[in-house]
Amino acid sequence: MTKAVKAIITGRVQGVWYRGWTQETARRLGLDGWVQNRRDGTVQAVFSGPEDKVDEMLRLCEEGPEYAFVSSVEHIPHLTEIPSGFNIRRSV
To answer: Is 87 a catalytic residue?
Structure first.
């Protein structure tokens, strides 16, 4: 079964290679979607793929890369179309 979610990651997640780590990890898991920094200091991402892989990605996001400190990962269903591949988007 396919699952798609939009996640908001809070904590020390900018300036610690979080987006690059997210892209590498999502691609390794075979997920589609994107990741980007937000002006409020959070990172947002959309993950789409097999339900178990999306759930694994969300769990991994709670840890993040080595220098990150994640205080929360909130997610909601994502209903709009997601292009193939996983990309880093410009900050918003």
So the answer is: no
